[in-house]
Structures are given as structure tokens and as C-alpha cells.
Specification:
This protein is mainly alpha-helical and 199 residues long. The chain folds into 2 domains: 8-90; 110-196, no CATH class. The protein has 7 helices and 2 strands; from the N terminus they run ααααααβαβ. The protein has helices at residues 16-28, 32-49, 59-70, 110-121, 126-146, 153-163, 180-184, and strands at residues 175-176, 195-196. The protein has a two-stranded antiparallel ribbon. The longest helix is centred in the C-terminal third of the chain and has 21 residues, at 126-146. It is elongated, with a radius of gyration of 30 Å. The relative contact order is 0.08.
Length: 199
Amino acid sequence: MKYNTQEKRLALPEYGRNIQNMVDYCVSISDREERTKCADTIISIMGNLFPHLRDVNDFKHILWDHLAIMADFSLDIDYPYEVIKKEDLYIKPSKLPYPTSKFTYKHYGKYLEDMIKEAIKFSESEEKEYLVSLLANHMKKSFLTWNKEVVDDSKIFSDLTQLSKGKIVLNEEEYKLTESKEILSKKPRNNNMMRRQKN
């Protein structure tokens, strides 16, 4: 009995040893027509192994690419698609540019700063007040994600004022954010997230 470690290394392990053996046999067939028929049969079996991927674009093309890879590009048939070339497998992908944009507080994130810039553009209205309430509570939630201790609302209001360059100023005596323990217990409030205190 042979262990898998003693067997030939599988080019695409997800198809298993049996499919690899079929591909090896297909390559060894001398008659080109029979070889092509064998390849078509193998493609059908490979497709049946992953029926949930049939809706993927170019599913058949991908299977033929995989067949060529498993045959180590030595399968001499007329492929119905232009299959991947061996040298293309070893081309290093180009590096993705690393984001260089700077933001003030990493725990709030860049998107929140962008949203604050948009909120500033709103004219004074209930809609803007509600938007600011969502942003302030989101800031508090983000703050507590990285710091599990209770945070004063004044800290959030101060950061919001700084991030908005003084355009959004909330008074701690007039506004109340969601309680820290409520956020940490993951029990969101159903009513407005920030309410103006009544005198």
C-alpha cells in the first residue's frame, strides 16, 4: 500500500487522486480522437464534482484550464477554449498600491471622516441632526471596540468637533448618546440613538 506522500504530487488537490489518474491515462492515449473523447469525459466528471459553480462565468473554460494544468500542459488535443499557458502560472501579480491617505484617529476609520465631511454640507434640519446622531453614536461604538472601558460622551463630542474642523459642535448637557454598557452588551436602542435633553 502506498501513502499519499509517496504518490505523485497533485497539481490541483481539490479534484483528488482519481481525477489525476484519469488525466494521466488520457495523456497516455496514442489516438488523438480517443484522447479528445477521454478529455471531454473527464471535463464532465470534473464539472459534476462542483455543481454549485455552474453559474460562474466561464465555468467550462476554467475546467479546461484545470485539465491542462493537471496534464502538465502535455495533453495534445484541440481545446475548445484557449487555455492558460504554463509560463502564465508563474507570473507574479502586480503589487496593489498601499493606501496612503492619512486620517486623524485610526479607531474611527477613514470612512467616518468622509461621512462627517458629507454631514457638514447638510443645511440645518432634523435630517442633519439625525445624521449627526448616527455618526456620534457610531464613533462611540468604534471607540469602545478598541477600548472596552466606559467613554465619556464629552470625548466623543470633542473628537467630532475636531474631525469636523469646528463645523459640528454638540453640547454634552443638551445631547445624550447611547450608554456604553448598552453598546458593549450589543443591545441597540430602538428609539432615536441620540436625544436632546428637555429642560
